[in-house]
From TrEMBL:
The lineage of its organism: Bacteria, Pseudomonadati, Bacteroidota, Flavobacteriia, Flavobacteriales. This is 2OG-Fe(II) oxygenase. It holds the Pfam family 2OG-FeII_Oxy_3. Coiled coil: none annotated. PANTHER family: EGL NINE HOMOLOG-RELATED, HIF PROLYL HYDROXYLASE, ISOFORM C. One of its GO terms (biological process) is cellular response to hypoxia. InterPro entries: HIF_prolyl_hydroxylases (IPR051559), Oxoglu/Fe-dep_dioxygenase_dom (IPR005123), Pro_4_hyd_alph (IPR006620), Pro_4_hyd_alph_FE2OG_OXY (IPR044862). Gene3D superfamilies: q2cbj1_9rhob like domain (2.60.120.620). It comes from the Bacteria. Residues 86-186 form the Fe2OG dioxygenase domain. Its cofactor is L-ascorbate. GO terms for molecular function: ferrous iron binding; L-ascorbic acid binding; peptidyl-proline dioxygenase activity. Keywords: Dioxygenase, Iron, Metal-binding, Oxidoreductase, Vitamin C.
């Protein structure tokens, strides 16, 4: 909590209990056949551009995806922590599973839309077992205009950052890259489920 207040991001390894990690990974693999190519922008202004991003996503829905209840409980807990210790007023969230096939990347960006700015905190949890240097798909975090560093997308690692403040990119993956990505919102929003 201190790190995200001071540095705008935090990296936490072994973020999930082993059983929850295993549950989410197997849920991910089950859903893989129904992932859709991710677009850019909100539903009003959305298009797919493989030059900018090359991932496939599955938007989670708390009601439909009730079998991963433990994840939803954790999301509630994390929101509660941010509200309590960082004095935020988070009251909603949206999460998707993301698959970057080999060759996929995501150009430098902020997690904000031009016509919607309620994403406060971005959360990414990686599910890449046995990730090794050379597999690619590192998350590049830009601290200011000239400095950036790479985060290896290893299994169980969680990265959280301020959505509107931290520019970031996903380097080209050389192997399939799996993650769970979400945004904690200032206002409740049902928009996420329409982004599919
Ligand atoms: O998967 C990651 O490391 C980051 C993904 C991302 O930046 C996004 O989906 O907006
Ligand atoms: Fe992003």
């Amino acid at each position: 909590m201190d790190d995200i207040s001071d540095k705008d991001y935090v990296i936490i390894d072994h973020f999930l209990r082993d059983d929850l990690y295993a549950e989410i990974r197997s849920f991910f693999l089950d859903k893989l056949p129904v992932f859709k190519e991710a677009g850019i922008g909100t539903d009003m202004d959305k298009h797919v551009d493989n030059n900018v991003r090359g991932d496939f996503t599955y938007w989670l829905d708390r009601k439909r995806d009730a079998n991963i209840q433990e994840l939803w409980n954790l999301v509630d807990e994390v929101i509660h922590m941010f509200n309590r210790y960082c004095f935020l007023s988070l009251s909603g969230y949206e999460f998707h599973l993301a698959h970057y096939p080999s060759g996929g990347h995501y150009d430098k960006h902020l997690d904000q839309f031009e016509n919607r700015n309620n994403r406060m905190i971005s959360v990414v949890i990686y599910l890449n077992e046995g990730w090794q240097k050379g597999d690619g798909g590192e998350l590049e975090i830009f601290e200011n205009d000239n400095e950036s560093f790479l985060v290896e997308p290893i299994a169980g690692r969680c990265v959280m950052f301020k959505s509107a403040k931290v520019p970031h990119a996903v380097l080209e993956a050389h192997k399939s890259r799996f993650s769970l990505t979400g945004w904690l919102l200032y206002q409740p929003s049902a928009l996420g489920q329409f982004f599919g």
